[in-house]
Amino acid sequence: MIRQMLVAVLLLVPLLAGAQNIKPYATQGNHYRASGNGYYTGYNASTRSTWSANTQGSRTTGRDRKGNFYTYDAKTRTYQNYGTGERRSPGNSTGKRRR
Predict the structure, then answer these.
(1) How far apart are the first and last CA of the chain?
(2) Average pLDDT for 20-40
(3) Torsions phi, psi of 12, nearest 5?
(4) Domain boundary assignment for the chain
(5) Mapping DSSP to helix (H, G, I), strand (E, B) and coil, where does residue 92 land?
(6) Cβ contacts of residue 41 below 8 Å, gap of 6+?
(7) What are phi and psi of 30, to 5 degrees?
(8) How far is it, in rounded angstroms, from Cα 20 to Cα 16?
(9) How far is the CA of 42 from the CAs of 3, 94, 96, in angstroms?
(10) Staple partner for 29: which of 46, 52, 75, 94, CB 3.0–4.6 Å?
(11) How many other CB atoms sit within 10 Å of the CB of residue 30?
(12) Closest CA to 79 of 27, 68, 17, 10
């Protein structure tokens, strides 16, 4: 619990400092800030959680709200969450979404 709170504080401080640069992604309750070089930090008001992502070319890696590592490849449209085992690609899904 303390670790989660510390992570939330560390991610929110830069967000609050640059509040004018926060972009809403309202359909999911997400607000995010681009920190440069393809790195994003976000906060979801609906779930009160933080997340991060780093995009280089067509590949995105990051941590979901529970700290699970994930990858997404825009070319193949394949998502893999290594913490939950969830894998999604066009016409094929395995694992369950865990909220």
Answers:
(1) 17
(2) 69
(3) -80, -30
(4) 2-71
(5) strand
(6) 11, 14, 15, 32, 33, 35, 50, 51, 52
(7) -90, 145
(8) 9
(9) 17, 26, 23
(10) 46
(11) 19
(12) 68
DSSP, residue by residue, 46-74:
TTTEEEEEEEETTEEEEE-TT--EEEEET
pLDDT band, very low/low/confident/very high, at 24 (cuts 50, 70, 90) = very low
Say what the pTM is.
0.62
pLDDT in tens, 43-55: 888 888 888 999 9
**Whether the Cβ atoms of residue 34 and residue 40 lie closer than 8 Å to each other:** yes
Find where tokens 């941590």 sit: 63
Query: Which residue did the predictor score with more confidence, 17 or 53?
Result: 53
For residues 61 and 54, the answer to whether their CB atoms sit within 8 Å is yes
Dist. CA 22–CA 42, nearest whole Å: 9
Q: Which two tokens stand for residue 55?
A: 């995009």
Give the Cα-Cα-Cα angle 41, 33, 86 (nearest 5 degrees): 40
